[in-house]
Amino acid sequence: MTVSHRRCLATLIAFGALVIAPATSAAAVSSPPRASVTLDPAHENQGRIPSHFVGFSVEWSLVERYMGPAARNAFANLLGNLGTGVLRVGGSSQDLMPFEPDAPDSDQVITPTDLSAIRSTLDAVNGRSRTPSWGVVLGTAMAPPSASRPFAGPDHARAFVRQGVEPAFAGAERDIAGIELGNEPDLSYHSDLDAYLSDLNAYADPDVTGPLPVIVPNTSEDILPWQDIDQRTVPTRFFWDWPRILDTAAPLTRARAGAFGAYASDHFYPLARTCPNKPYRCPSIGALLSDEHMASLDYQVYAHAGEARDHGLGYRLEETNTAAGRGADGVSNVAAAAAYGLDLMFHAACPQPPADPAANATCGTGAVGVNFHNAEVRAFFAPEEGNGYYNAIDYDVTPAMGAPTAAPLYYAALMFGRFAQGGTGLRPVPVTADDPGAAQVKAWRVEGGSGERRLFLINKGDHPVTLTVSAPGSTALVDRMTPYDPSGAGRTLDAPQVRVDGRQVAADGSWPGFRPAAQRIHGHRMTVTVAAGEACVITGG
């Protein structure tokens, strides 16, 4: 297939409808199958995507790798490229690494030096603005004391806040989205809800965590089909306990909401690196891009975002990625992860509950943000062994701890951050076709500033889809996210790299800028080709 056929060609989205007609696969066919999609007129104040929607999550053990002196400038550039967002520093390491105010800096403990590095990174992104473009979540241990965490307790959390966070962020308190209390308490408390709620009250007391915002419950769930959770035929951890958790948590968090609002947080992974006796968890590109696993995301986000809303809170998917256990090689670190990640952010913002698909047609319930997690490949405290397969931003594994670099998943956050977040009029656009292969293309619409309308087309399949577009107007601007195989072997979903408008992030983390193609429309018709694993955003007035 030629380069011109790989381009996503599209149309001006004006005040009428957008209709996409025949679709063909890569194979030659005598009668091309038909597909269509209609973009209806704008609906004011419906389906809003908040600013600061995009975000990343990193383990405390990697602060030096991402925000040390040699890495900081590039990492700040990588954050700034996305516009606004939230950086979370936490994960399982927050329940394993003690805060020690007088200890030498290392990746074994949390020190004031780590907090100063985080503050310096945000200063590099935000400048002197009092309305931060990026905020930070700072995780601290909240778990029953054990041999691996003998330090855990309210006194430790108090020291973390009073001797670490408050001095480091003096004058920049607005940059703090929250102090996150514990990581995946459903695991650390062994599903003992009463013990968790008792500790939550103790840790959230202002005598412990001061006046700063707090974030809970940071729960996870086993990787299960949504139908089994819905029918309650499988053991779950805290999934069905969110109403009771938020009865306790919501008054505490609402009373101390900061610049980023009060929200409840959640974790989600569709797959796992290992899957003994649980085939549903097994990682593959096909499973990652399947409607089945996206439906499980929809189910969880819709259920928990609804509970948060009913308690006067927002909802953030504060830790997510392609596969638990630090990702899967050949699945999490290839172009398929970018296609998945872009679609995931739309589904998080506007979950379509599989048990009742019409219940959220106007996108009134959804997340206020998503954080893609980044970790070491095997274990904490061994960063030299390599990056987690699912990392959106790869750190330098050498002793130099130099500039981090953009992995495929980063480009999905870049596209969403620059073209979707902050928009209104969000909703899914149905794609119908005689050929089941056309269902691999997912479509979403958003309205940007100055009356712009944007259509996202995401091809999650392994072959191109060609469509005929019928629409008014004469010109469109088209930006595209495309798999890139430097070997020339033509890999698509399993390509090791991604480009946007043919460009990549520079070595210093800066983005050279989008370079959309201007496409003419002739007679209200034109051809749209979306290559395997490719995504396009089409902008018109």
**What spatial order of strands do you see in the largest sheet?**
3-4-5-6-7-8-10-12
Report how far the terminal alpha carbons are from each other: 31 Å
Provide the structure class.
alpha/beta
Any idea what the radius of gyration is? 23 Å
CA-based shape: globular
Low-confidence stretches: 1-7, 9-33
Q: How many DSSP-defined strands?
A: 24
Strand % is: 15-25%
Helix content: 25-40%
Rounded mean pLDDT is 89
Query: DSSP helix count?
Result: 14
The largest sheet is: 8 strands, parallel, barrel
InterPro entries: GH, GH79_Enzymes, Glyco_hydro_b
Organism: Actinoallomurus iriomotensis
Keywords: Signal
Protein name: Beta-glucuronidase C-terminal domain-containing protein
